[in-house]
Design goal:
Blueprint: H1 2-17, H2 28-32, H3 38-41, H4 64-70, H5 74-83, H6 104-114
Length: 119
């Protein structure tokens, strides 16, 4: 089961690396003219994963830093004030991002069992 999930992941990554001979321009019209890959268009379910340093506080999303320091969203600012020392920086999350419970085989099994057409 894990091997099938790993194979699905590898196949998805390989298909993303395929470079055709068509050239596109940096315009919406040009970008909208590109065809969807069959593996994407025909999939009934796909899984997008966002996992990084922003996962350490487990609050909000990958936009955590922007919400905290950029937009200064009250919920995020209050969360940081309640849970971290005043001089804590986003970079301070780095050493805490250890992925100690990361189990790629388990993830592959779950994704494979979900029936996702891509990950």
């Amino acid at each position: 089961m894990a091997a099938a999930g790993a194979a699905l992941c590898l196949l998805t990554l390989c298909s993303l690396c395929f470079v055709g001979e068509t050239s596109y321009q940096p315009t919406w019209e040009s970008l909208d003219s590109r065809p969807l890959p069959a593996w994407y268009d025909e999939a009934k379910l796909g899984i997008f994963i966002h996992w990084g340093v922003f996962s350490v506080p487990s609050f909000r999303s990958e936009w955590f830093w922007q919400d905290w320091k950029g937009a200064k969203d009250k919920d995020v600012v209050d969360f940081m004030a309640a849970n971290y020392k005043p001089d804590f920086t986003y970079a301070d999350f780095g050493p805490q991002f250890t992925a100690e419970f990361y189990d790629p085989n388990r993830w592959a099994d779950i994704f494979n069992a979900s029936g996702a057409g891509y990950i």
